[in-house]
Each structure stands twice: as structure tokens, then as C-alpha cells.
Amino acid sequence: MKIVVFVIFVIVAGGLTLFFFSPWDTSKKQEYKGVPAVSVQPQEVYTENGDQITEDEALSTYNEMISRGGKEAEDAEQKGIDGIQAPNPFGDELINRAHIDDKKAQKYILYMASDKKKITKQRVRWLLYAVSMDKMGLKHKNVYNKILNRWKNNDFSQFESDKQKILNLQK
To answer: Is 32 helix (H, G, I), strand (E, B) or coil?
Structure first.
């Protein structure tokens, strides 16, 4: 009986401690070692194998990776919580949505524009969210928004024009 009471006490005390003294206040944007964190808005986010992951699960995974140390901790620091919750669908594992600048936005749009089969809902939503978040001060945010919103709505009527607009921005 004493053991059961003790175990319950430890669980409750641990939970209260984490609740009141947790350094992870998700209501505020945070910074971790100079890398801006992302205040993630609720949305459909999936892991590489298609399972949905919550912000809490991403935070837990992030903390586990950090605690292991070594290369895994370095990768976690580079990806940030957002990179774990919403993995980059373009294959650049260490680039999260907060790190999308004009050069990367253009690269990703041109990648999709090279073949319509490369335009997926996941890629369009991921990049559209990165553009709308605009952590890097995008110069051509409106252009990217218009193109991505059209593609999101399966409107490819200006597909060639969209591709040309991005190519012209690179000149």
C-alpha cells in the first residue's frame, strides 16, 4: 500500500513540476541557440511515413534527440521543433519552414514547376505555410502566395506563366 501511494505521489509531483516549470511555453515564439523557433499553427502535419504528429509529439521527439547528444542532437537543433513536426517535403531535411528565403522558395517552386507530378498537396501546403510565416523577409511573398494558392486549388491555367515569373525573379 505504501508503495502504491508513493508511486502515485511521484507521478503527480512530476506532472505538476513539468506543468509549472516547463521551459517550453508553446504560446510564445522561442529561440534555441540562435535559431528562430516557429510558433506552429494547428494544421494537418504528417511524418515521412504518413502518420499525423502533434506539436507535443514533435517536442518530445526533439527533446529525446537533444538528450542523446552527438550528431542527432546537432540535427535536432538545426531542424527545430517545426522541422520535426512538419518535415521538409522537398528532401532538405535540415531546412524547416522558418528558414525559407527567396532563393529557397524559388528553388522549390521551380522544382515543382519542372513536372506537374512533383506538385503535391503536402509540398504546396508546406511551402505556402512557410511563405505566409515569412521569417526571412521575403521580397516576393505576394508572387509566391498567388502561385501556391492557385496550385493549392488545382488551378494550373497559368502554369507556364507561373514558372516564367519565378525564372524572371532570378535574373
So the answer is: strand
> pLDDT digit of tens for each residue in the chain (171 aa)?
767 555 565 565 555 454 444 444 443 344 433 444 444 344 445 555 555 588 888 888 888 888 988 888 888 888 888 888 889 999 998 899 999 999 999 999 999 999 999 999 999 999 999 999 999 999 999 999 999 999 999 999 999 999 999 999 998
- The full set of domain ranges for the chain reads 38-87, 97-169
Amino acid at 19: F
Rounded CA separation 40/26 (Å):
9
What is the pTM for the complete model shown?
Answer: 0.67
User: At 31, which helix (H) or strand (E)?
Assistant: strand 31-32
| DSSP code at position 88 | -
